[in-house]
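User: I'm writing a tutorial on reading structure tokens. Could you give me a worked example: one chain, its sequence, then its tokens, then a sentence or two explaining what the tokens reveal?
Assistant: Sure. Here is the example chain.
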Amino acid sequence: MDQQTNNISSNDFEISGLKLSFDGKEMPTVNSNEFYCLDGGFASHLPTHYKQTVENDPLWSCRALHTNPEAVIETHKDFAVAGADIITTNTYQATAEHLRKHVGRDMIDPIIEPHELLEESVKFARKGAQYAGKMGAKPFIAGAVGPYGACLCDGSEYTGNYLQAGTSADLKIGKDDNEIRDFLRNWHRDRIKRLHLGGVDIHAVETIPGSLEALAILDVLEEFPGSKAWISFQCKDGGKFTAGGESIEDAFCALVRHRSFRFKIIAVGANCVNPLDVCDILKCFNRVNNWNSWPNILNYNKIPYIVYPNAGRSWDGNSKSWISEESKSTYHANEILDNIGTWMKLGANIIGGCCQIGPEITKLIKRKITMEMFGAIQYRQVEDEKPENINPENEWSSVLKRLEKPSESSRKKRKEVEENTER
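And here are its predicted structure tokens:
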């Protein structure tokens, strides 16, 4: 955007697929005919520039924000060079409290600096994009908001145990869903606030094991005008359930029922899942992500999807390591690349990689998205034109009928009914 656009202060409006908020800041929206390449596994690629292990670190890759910001910037740059349209901040496992606990002793002011570091993480991501020569509307900067379980450092984000009232009482989170949701609201608030103040274009709410935590985060997003997010779940059992055990359909429906869902969420999906499970995950979403499932929502539009699987391995929270086959192979890359076209046809508009997916695969994902784009758009248009997929409420005749002024006889009849009811 040019300098004149940055001075816009009028009400929200849309231009070229981007939504401009009241303060002139670009906020991405996802058009059904637009596709984006997300970056890959930051922590997996960071060791290329940061010669320290991260997998056994309670801060994961986030320690580098304090100890080696240049390595963070260079890692972001590599993904931007590879063609990523969206760069995610290195804050998945970082909160002010967590940073203070593990690097606070090395800070001049351990009270203030952890908060500032979260804001600076956005600058690091943007610098990486700039160093890659990406200065336009893309790449967008997404502020990584990992789950509470990630900071427990025991793999809880892959089980969702802390969302269960029986076990949560032991963790001192809350004795019921209301208390747990309140606890998670308070826990997530500061990081979301800092990323928002730092200037993220969107919040990347990721690896969420259940809808209860997603709803708590949606509650917090309401406090920040103009903020947007995607919600990405961690899944199990072949992608049919969230990590916490609720069906994908139920998790999606819980989000839609939130009062701010349509105003805050640009996409819903899954991440750090096996690429072979993605198709089933999207099919589960599609069962409830349609106007037939929400007859009481006027002009319901299908929510776009975001998917960024890992390399097909599972995380062992006890050993702090990935298990199963070799970590990096053409075989695992092909499991992603060979299915991207299908994912796009099923509704995915944002596609990238998670753990152990580096810039070399991001480059291939970007190329594959470009190749499959036209076919996916055509397929979606054909599907949308099928009679069972056309929402009659969106037909112009239906709109005219709703706008039609009632006749005099109709008004008299309705008045009589109301009077008889009052008696």
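What the tokens reveal: The chain has a mean pLDDT of 86. The longest strand covers residues 202-208.
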